[in-house]
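input
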Amino acid sequence: MKIAIVCYPTFGGSGVVATELGIALANRGHEVHFITYKQPVRLELLGNDIHFHEVHVPEYPLFHYQPYELALSSKLVDTVKHFDIELLHVHYAIPHAYAGYMAKKILEEEGIYIPMITTLHGTDITLVGNHPEYKPAVTFSINKSDVVTSVSENLKSQTLQLFDIKRDIEVIPNFIDKKKCNTEFTDCQRSLMAEDNERIITHISNFRKVKRILDVIRIFHGIQQQIPAKLVMVGEGPEKEKAEVLCDKLNIQDKVIFLGNSNEIDRILCFSDLFLLPSETESFGLAALEAMMNKVAVISSNTGGIPEVNKHGITGFLSNVGDIDDMVKNSLKILKDDSTLLQFKENAYKVASEFDITNILPLYESMYERAHKSNLKSSY
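output
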């Protein structure tokens, strides 16, 4: 099948999932076309089955903000016609579903009918999409999609609560490719990050306010007061400077390492003992899943879709949002004893394996087939 995928090409979870999905589909013999404003960060190789089409937004002085949705819709139309695309899969409701619908209507004027799948990822619904200025357009786009999926049961529930949705939403969870997670690095070089007697704590995100970055620092501060430890912070974002200031204030700047963005997540996680995810909300918790697949226990907030990934008392622990003391206490339960830590690590890997792409990819392929057959029937 010839599939066009629209996503954000950044380090965020939705872009990562969309890119990994496209790569896996190409490996299964599908022809995949990524359409976005720059090449996705996880898309390293292009070839006969994987293509990238850049959306150019022309500069025009009339516009205060350049109309990306219009450029994207036009690019979709051109790509569908030129490459005989059979199915459109847009990730993130804003503005991709809206642009996709406009492209569908333009194509229908020329007698071309193509099904559109919209996958909801989280903030496109709970944060941006629910804003009064966007809500009508998001509601319309979801209802006009041929198929709608969400990455967790929690996100599906929130979508139905926040919007007037008149169609079914199918839950297909986020996934991870076990084959790509190398947990056996021979050059792991743990000693570069910490002393032999120190536990290594890790946090990976885009450092936005919703990630509660300052809570990460405070949790670590509590941990290192009880046991020797180092904190590795991976990512960039608006809360980074505040986190650095807090480290100085707590006098732990020599125990916290800020690495910035990285494409070597597995190499970083291979020597980690504990992953911190105290977010205000997460639609799924993809960063936690990546940690778990690398045999890292997780301390997280009990919010959004995280409990569907991090199993309390098995792969880690869940606490109420902002309950730093409880997160410190739970962290120490895992870290103080080597045998306990090892058991949590093994449990994390076992649960994460349930989300391996080999289990999730067939769900997408089945959905594509249903959408494609339904579209063929309706076009006659």
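quick obs: DSSP finds 13 helices and 13 strands in the chain.
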